[in-house]
Amino acid sequence: MKFVVLATLSLVLSVSGFGETAEKEKTKGFKFPPTYSLIGLSWYGEDTKAQVGSGIGFRLRGFGMQFNDKFGVEGFLDIAAKLETSTLSDVSDVEISGEIVDLKTKRNNYASIVGTYTHQLSERWSLIGKAGYSRYSKKFHVFFEGDQVFPRRLVKESDFDSVVSFGLLRKIGSDKEQKQEKYYTRALELSLTKFFGEAGAMSINVRLRGI
C-alpha cells in the first residue's frame, strides 16, 4: 500500500513539474512589449480656419507601446487652445443675423493613434518621428435671442485626417537596476506636431512619458 501511495505521489509531482516547465517555456517564447504613459502641454498659434486659438493646450494621459529600440505605437488625446469668440463669426458656417446674440467657442480635441520611429543619437538623446491618423472634433455654441425653447444650439464637425510629429527624446533616470526597457521608455519629449484637414492645427509640445 505504501508503495502504491509513493508511486502515485511521484507520478503527480512529475506531471506537475512537467506542466510548470512547459508553461515557463511557453511564457518565455512570447514577451509582451513594454508600455508607458503619456502626458504633457502644448502651445498653439491662432488659426481661425482650424478654429484654434493662441495659447496652451493639453495632452491628456495616453499610452505607448515599444516593440523594439526603433518602432512603437502611441495613442493619445490632445485638447487645443480655445479660439476667441470675437474671431469665430468670420470663419463659421453659421448665418449671422440679428437674432444671434452670442457665439461661444469650445476647445477642439484630437484623438490620435500613430506609429513611432526612434533613432538614437547618443546614450540619452534620440530623434523621434510619428505618423498616423487623428479624429478631430471642433464645436461652438450659438445663442438666439428670439428662441425661447432652444436659445442655445451646438454646432459641431468631426472627421478623420492624418497627423505627423517630429522631435527630440531625452531619457530620464538611470539604469542601475539594469531594466533596459523601463529605462528606455522613461523620457522627456520636445516635438512639433501637425494635424491636417479642416481642423489642422500645429503645436509645439513638451511631453513626459513613462513617469
SSE ordering: HEEEHEEEEHEE
Kindly report the oligomeric state of this protein.
single chain
- Strand-residue fraction? over 45%
Q: What kind of sheet is the major sheet?
A: 8 strands, antiparallel, barrel
How confident is the prediction overall: mean pLDDT? 78
Q: Uncertain segments of ≥5 residues (pLDDT<50)?
A: 2-9, 11-16, 18-25
Order of the strands making up the biggest sheet: 1-2-3-5-6-7-8-9
**Total DSSP helices:** 3
CA(first)-CA(last) distance:
61 Å
Give me the secondary-structure category: alpha+beta
Provide an overview of this structure.
With 211 residues, the chain is of the alpha+beta class. Helices cover 18% and strands 50% of the residues. The chain is built from 3 helices and 9 strands. It has helices at 2-29, 85-88, 180-185, and strands at 35-44, 55-66, 71-79, 100-105, 109-120, 125-144, 152-171, 187-195, 202-209. An 8-stranded antiparallel beta barrel has the order 1-2-3-5-6-7-8-9. A hairpin with a 4-residue loop joins strand 2 (55-66) and strand 3 (71-79). The N and C termini lie far apart (61 Å). Residues 2-9, 11-16 and 18-25 have low confidence and may be disordered.
Give the SSE layout.
Blueprint: H1 2-29, E1 35-44, E2 55-66, E3 71-79, H2 85-88, E4 100-105, E5 109-120, E6 125-144, E7 152-171, H3 180-185, E8 187-195, E9 202-209
Antiparallel strand pairs: 1-2, 1-9, 2-3, 3-5, 4-6, 5-6, 6-7, 7-8, 8-9
